[in-house]
Amino acid sequence: MDHLYETTCPLFGSCGGCRYNGTDYASELKQKEEKIKALFLPLLGEDFFESASYEGVIPSPKACAYRNKMEYSFGNAEKDGPLTLGLHQKKSFYNVLSVQECRLVHPDLNTITAAVQAWFREKGADFYHKKTHQGLLRHLILRRSETNGDILVNLVTSGDARGYEEWTAYLLSLPLSGRIRGILHTENHSLSDAIVPEKVTLLYGEGFLEETVLGLHFKLSPFSFFQTNTRAAEKLYEKVREYIALTPGAVVYDLYSGTGTIAQVLSPAAGRVYGVEIVEEAVAAARENAALNGLSNCCFLAGDVLKKLEELPEPADYIVLDPPRDGVNPKALSKLLRSGARRMVYVSCKPSSLARDLPLLRLGGYEAEKMVLADLFPRTDNIECAMQFVRKMS
Model-level pTM? Predict the structure, then answer.
């Protein structure tokens, strides 16, 4: 399917998701790499990028159809226009564009999206209007397992789950290459555009998918945080494991740990791994998945990293940081610099945040030893960066 990468998307420039259109993948990676080099060159110097310390870009195994999750909105493309299901138009809070040919997702998801739009158009259903707070249809969340092709369908409305038997049967009749494992309904009366799962009802099948990463198994609900490009994330986690280079019996902190994927990848070589994450649902999922994988040396704590650092029972030998886009809280980073950890690996989904934090890491006695880029989001401007820091003895 990667041949689609070099063809023109009919919505390019309108939906705002993609930045590289009709460009071969090698050229895209080169452009992304040059932007990151320009960002870090004043901090690391030319010698760093000309040495073995800089390891280039890990390409995504798939340049198309890589996203395992999409959140679509119901609306219309213009005032009083027909019901549409898709993504918000670029720079527009209200207009929604139908995206039935999106190149970032597997064709099964496009098939489902087109069918759901057609179904509710025929029924004359109305979408939830952000101004009046009237209407029924709000969002459609689709999740697909890269491991086995199973799909979760989650319809989000401002009403309850009654009367969806015919719609459920219709979905199950669609010609898909994978199978629909579960169909759910989420009731959401929130005034904001955020998806608030006030009540979730299982309409069909099971309410989770299964995904395998580096031999570990994970159960994913419609709302679980999980990297949207499964196989590219796997490549990145392999590099994190290499960079952290654990010694037997070591204590590891996985900070901003999400559902604990990195913690579990590192746990077989560690003595103890502590994961800290502020989202309680993610922590619950991390604990469940660690139990599923038979990992007894993982401990996950729910709370803010800055506060939870005071509660961890033993100091870290190694630290993995995988913060949100804004980077690490400066006060938390100051605490980490006093930890005495031998190595840190900083994974950044927004490299400019890492560039901001790098001088403070140096002041704290940590030097950048290795760096790699990982393209988890082909076609978009985003690229991830992983950097290994080693504590210099005074």
Answer: 0.92
